[in-house]
Amino acid sequence: MRNAVEFTVYGDYALFTDPLTKLGGEKLTYQVPTYQALKGMVESIYWKPTIMIVVDKVRIMKPIRMESKGIRPIEYHGGNTLANYTYLKDVEYQVQAHFVFNPHRKDLAHDRNEHKHHNMMTRAVKAGGRRDVFLGARECQAYVEPCTFGSGDGAYDHNEELHFGTMVHGLSYPDETGKDQLDVRLWRPVMKQGVIDFIHPEECTIVRKVKEMEPKRFDESNVRLVEDE
């Protein structure tokens, strides 16, 4: 694709939380990053309301290893408690993604310049991102460098298939769907020779409504309007 970007992202720890483990205050990471987590990384590197990021695939470069830590999260009523968070340790991924124009932002049709946005995104990748990049959680700092997807040796290059069961694919926000609701998407990823090819959000067949939500509203100068409580 003409507007595709490829980069490697790595860090000491990652936490792609399985939502089922949050109920008791614990956090257990998925074995691989979710579509939504990778999309958030790309948006931290470069994002504009004119475009929507589409993650094409991810390549797992290092062996999947986990480490549990005792954490004292701050409680809402004050004080803290002890919880166990299980992280991925010493991770590295190659990511390929591209962007499409947001059809629901017709007010930004004048900004639909593919060449401009691709050049800016490419420069942002070389600079390591416009904003801080995280591997699923704020405490998991990530580092970004440009790469050629498929280059180098990966830990699972010679594995035929590895199934991960049902996982969260991502969240569908009203700004990108045109619907006044927030949905969560599920899917069943399969890693082949170390690579997971993501299906597009609209191809997910397991979709559940989370809550009613209206899209963000902006004025003519693209400043977000906040409704009165």
From TrEMBL:
One of its GO terms (biological process) is defense response to virus. Keywords: Antiviral defense, Endonuclease, Hydrolase, Nuclease, RNA-binding. Its EC number is 3.1.-.-. It holds the Pfam family Cas_Cas5d. GO terms for molecular function: endonuclease activity; hydrolase activity; RNA binding. InterPro entries: CRISPR-assoc_prot_Cas5 (IPR021124), CRISPR-assoc_prot_Cas5_N (IPR013422), CRISPR-assoc_prot_Cas5d (IPR010155). The keyword NAD does not apply. The keyword Repeat does not apply. CRISPR (clustered regularly interspaced short palindromic repeat) is an adaptive immune system that provides protection against mobile genetic elements (viruses, transposable elements and conjugative plasmids). CRISPR clusters contain spacers, sequences complementary to antecedent mobile elements, and target invading nucleic acids. CRISPR clusters are transcribed and processed into CRISPR RNA (crRNA). Belongs to the CRISPR-associated protein Cas5 family. Subtype I-C/Dvulg subfamily. This is pre-crRNA processing endonuclease. It comes from Alkalicoccus urumqiensis.
